[in-house]
Amino acid sequence: DTGVSQNPRHKITKRGQNVTFRCDPISEHNRLYWYRQTLGQGPEFLTYFQNEAQLEKSRLLSDRFSAERPKGSFSTLEIQRTEQGDSAMYLCASSFSGKGNEQFFGPGTRLTVL
Amino acid sequence: EDQVTQSPEALRLQEGESSSLNCSYTVSGLRGLFWYRQDPGKGPEFLFTLYSAGEEKEKERLKATLTKKESFLHITAPKPEDSATYLCAVQAFGGTSYGKLTFGQGTILTVHP
Asked: What is the number of CB-based contacts under 8 A between chain A and chain B?
């Protein structure tokens, strides 16, 4: 079991640039989630997929954010025209809907917007 | 809207000094309550899921309990390696929110040798 992997682990970008993060879930998991975590806070839900279908997006997710999960495997999260307020840890998690639905998290991608 | 509040925000213990962390929640219909451990710079690590009031689960020095309004994480004879942030989260039944976890802000536990 290789666990959830995320790339890159760290990203530094300038305000206004676009960034893309990748998440590879645990292989047999059909659900995939994205969360954002800022210092001193718990993770905040952004969106989730069951297989390739995006079933929910947080109302807090602006139009600059988009996520995809082609073919129900890996997922990408893109942020367009980054702002300093986007600086955070972006966490990906996966679960299997038929088995308790415990979500297992990856190591996260730390984004710093200068 | 689902809400989770954890207390205290920070807890400092001596090695061997047992204590409890609290997680109070409000949710439309509780599907599950989850406890995670998070080390600095890492993703949360799954510990327990509790589904109904009265349920208890144990793992090494940790024991989680659940009532209709709150959950406790009891730490017995903690060691320095138990130092971490402990996160509580709830998952609600129904609609498209079936998968989403709502987290509290966490309790930072420090255990001194």
From this structure: 63
Distance CA B86, CA B92 (A): 20
- Over residues A36-63, the pLDDT tens digits come to 999 999 999 999 999 999 988 998 788 9
Query: What are the E-state strand segments in chain B?
Result: 3-7, 10-14, 19-26, 30-38, 45-50, 56-59, 62-66, 70-75, 84-92, 102-103, 107-112
Kindly list the residues of chain A whose beta carbon comes within 8 Å of any beta carbon in chain B.
4, 31, 33, 35, 40-45, 48, 50, 55-56, 91, 93, 95, 100-108, 110
Give the C-alpha separation, A42 to A48, whole Å: 17
Question: Which chain A residue shows the shortest CA-CA distance from B9?
Answer: A40
